[in-house]
Design brief:
With 215 residues, the protein is mainly α. It contains nine helices and no strands. It has two domains: 163 residues, no CATH class; 45 residues. Helix content is 80%, strand content 0%. Keywords: Cell membrane, Membrane, Transmembrane, Transmembrane helix. It is found in: Cell membrane.
Length: 215
């Protein structure tokens, strides 16, 4: 982690606020660069007078949006048709599940993108299903901008307030992240359990239909 911090410091010293934007852009596509380290550090640097608060926020948010569009592009490249073909070859799921997921995203995609940008571990990944669903680019950008703006402003300001204690922000976010990961793990277990039960019911139903009638 210290190596990442040193690299970010050097980037900000050389480029100023645009360096923060580059670091956040990379954070979107390269998770080992965590925003909970970059942004509070940027806030601390603002407190020292080396960076401008508004410029830092603007560049950080621009980096978030550009990085999100890159992952959106990955999702669009993957596409619904390719995902359906992949699903049909997988155990427990099929193309109909992809259609159901896309239908859900059609209804709740905007909220998913907005709130997803506020959840560690999900912040970057939420852009991929948006791309798969071909969510309207302007709509995607605006909701990404809103969610990222809140996240960036909060972490930069906390770093500004805490000064040389800015690393405490990462500690708090880590605790928050652990709770999120537990919730996600429980949800995945519940989903897998549901899919296994559904698969077993389908097998029994198929066996009943294929059973020869009694004479």
């Amino acid at each position: 982690m210290q190596g990442i911090i040193d690299w970010i410091v050097n980037l900000m010293e050389i480029l100023g606020a645009p360096g923060v934007g580059i670091a956040i852009l990379l954070e979107n596509v390269f998770p080992p660069i965590p925003s909970e380290v970059v942004l509070p550090l940027a806030g601390f640097t603002v407190a020292q007078g080396s960076l401008n608060m508004l410029a830092t926020f603007i560049w950080a948010t621009a980096g978030s949006v550009v990085g999100a569009y890159l992952l959106y592009g990955l999702g669009a490249w993957l596409g619904a048709d390719r995902l359906r073909r992949i699903a049909d070859k997988m155990w427990l799921v099929d193309a109909n599940d992809v259609d159901s997921a896309l239908h859900w995203f059609d209804k709740y995609g905007a909220a998913s993108v907005f709130f997803g940008r506020l959840i560690p571990g999900v912040r970057s990944l939420i852009s991929i299903p948006a791309g798969i669903d071909r969510m309207n680019l302007v709509k995607f950008g605006l909701w990404t901008l809103a969610g990222s703006g809140i996240w960036n402003a909060l972490l930069i300001y906390l770093g500004y307030l805490l000064g040389d204690q800015y690393t405490k922000v990462a500690d708090v976010v880590d605790q928050y992240s652990n709770i999120i990961y537990i919730v996600i793990a429980v949800a995945l277990i519940a989903l897998i359990t549901y899919l296994i039960r559904r698969n077993n019911k389908r097998k029994k139903s198929d066996q009943s239909r294929n059973r020869p009638p009694n004479n």
